[in-house]
Amino acid sequence: MENLDGIVKRLEAATVRLEALSHQKPSLAPKPAATSGTANHVSEEIPSIVKQYDEQIEDLLLNFFTLCSKIGGQKEPDASQLPAKMEPIIKLNEEILRFKESKRNTQFFNHISAMAEGIPAVAWISVKPTPVPYIKEMLDASMFFVNRVRKDFKADQLHQDWVNAWCEIFSGLSKYVKQYHTTGLVWNSAPGATPPTSATAKPAPASKGGPAPPPPPPPPPADLFADLKASSSASKPASDSDRQALFSAINKGEAITSSLKKVTSEMQTHKNPGLRAGATVPANVAPAKGAPAPARAQQVVSKPPRLELENFKNWVVENYRDNKNIVVEINDMKQTVYVYKCENSVLQVKGKVNSVTIDSCKKTSVVFENLLSQVEIINCQSIEVQSLGALPTISIQKTDGCQVYLSKDSISAEIVTSKSSEMNVLVPSGPDGDFVEFPIPEQFKTVYNVGKKKLETTVSDIV
């Protein structure tokens, strides 16, 4: 009996504890272990005053927050409000840079630097109208340290996987932004409104853990296949008598050819050139009077030039024409310069800059002082680039005609080329400031080495 009374008391204590837990909201934080069943009951029981708050106030707050999001949520802020809204991201970037500097001369400093230079890509939400090139700029700034990681840990597959995973993040982000936010972050102009759907279509139920699928497209117009029906009806046989006549003609056998007309020599075109001349279509046919003129090619609309610092990080220089006095003052060496669709212009970059990218430009010259990572030239024609100070790397891609002027401090720069032609490097020689020109090879010769069992590539004799 004494054992039975003890069991009953323990069951009662467990029941009280379960009832207290049923009124408690779930929490992700682990609870400290109790020493006994009674202590557990005392420590985890919720006071009635807390229960009353949850029941009476929490639902009201939830309803209020929902209405707030419908009134002011997802509305695009004014340009004057944007710096204040971006301040949390800017502060986090500053903390990351301070953390990077604290890890200088450590084993994984290049890893941390790669992330610190590329993480500002999250600020694409404030870039308009081309956020995708901005993401690429941040990746280029990060690649200087990424290549160092690849070189220092060439034999370690773990670090190579880390590098690939880091670059895939930018690739996925660029793909997402290009698909859904091509010209900038898309805002909801009518908060709380739902996208229009077809009058007859029913919305599909939302799956757990993800957004609802898009609504089905509207039904096609009623007369969409009218022309097909008309053509099919026209192709039907006129009557059963025509079908009977066809089968009776087939049943004649060889006698069916008796009704054919004989082709005489006067009817044969290969014996009468006059027939061939009359059957040809004239080369130039004048358009009939009153016929509509063919549509002219759409004229290319030229956009106004723009010189702007985006997100305190990237200088954008685009759409300049016939301007020889473009100047960019760099006050922070972490800043980058992106030159886009400029023609017959000259740009001078003053100060130490992280990287310079020249994209889709023609007959344009870019002069800069000191460069931390690289200058990239892509999809350009007749470009001149001059370095007055340090320059570690030059990348030339899909470019026809490129002159690179090196200084004494950048004479050991690495030059990487692909799918390009008419490239020359000019190296200073002598105190008079003269340059010696060297062409970059465009043709290569590749042979298979049987002994080494690999391909060997050398520069062709024709340069």
Automatic annotation (TrEMBL):
The protein's name in its UniProt record: Adenylyl cyclase-associated protein
Subcellular location: Cell membrane
Keyword annotations from UniProtKB, A to Z: Cell membrane, Membrane
Gene Ontology CC annotations of this record: cytoplasm; plasma membrane
GO biological process, one term: cell morphogenesis
Pfam families with a match to the protein in the record: CAP_C, CAP_N, CAP_N-CM
Spans annotated as Disordered: 191-243
Classification via Gene3D superfamilies: 2.160.20.70, Adenylate cyclase-associated CAP, N-terminal domain
Database matches in PROSITE patterns: C_CAP_COFACTOR_C, CAP_1, CAP_2
Molecular function GO terms recorded: actin binding; adenylate cyclase binding
InterPro entries on file: Adenylate_cyclase-assoc_CAP (IPR001837), Adenylate_cyclase-assoc_CAP_C (IPR013912), Adenylate_cyclase-assoc_CAP_N (IPR013992), C-CAP_CF_C-like (IPR017901), CAP/MinC_C (IPR016098), CAP_C_sf (IPR036223), CAP_CS_C (IPR028417), CAP_CS_N (IPR018106)
Organism placement in taxonomy: Eukaryota, Metazoa, Ecdysozoa, Nematoda, Chromadorea
Every C-CAP/cofactor C-like domain range: 304-440
Signal peptide: none
Extent of Pro residues compositional bias: 211-222
Protein topology in the membrane: Peripheral membrane protein
Main subcellular localisation: membrane
Keyword Membrane part of the UniProt annotation: yes
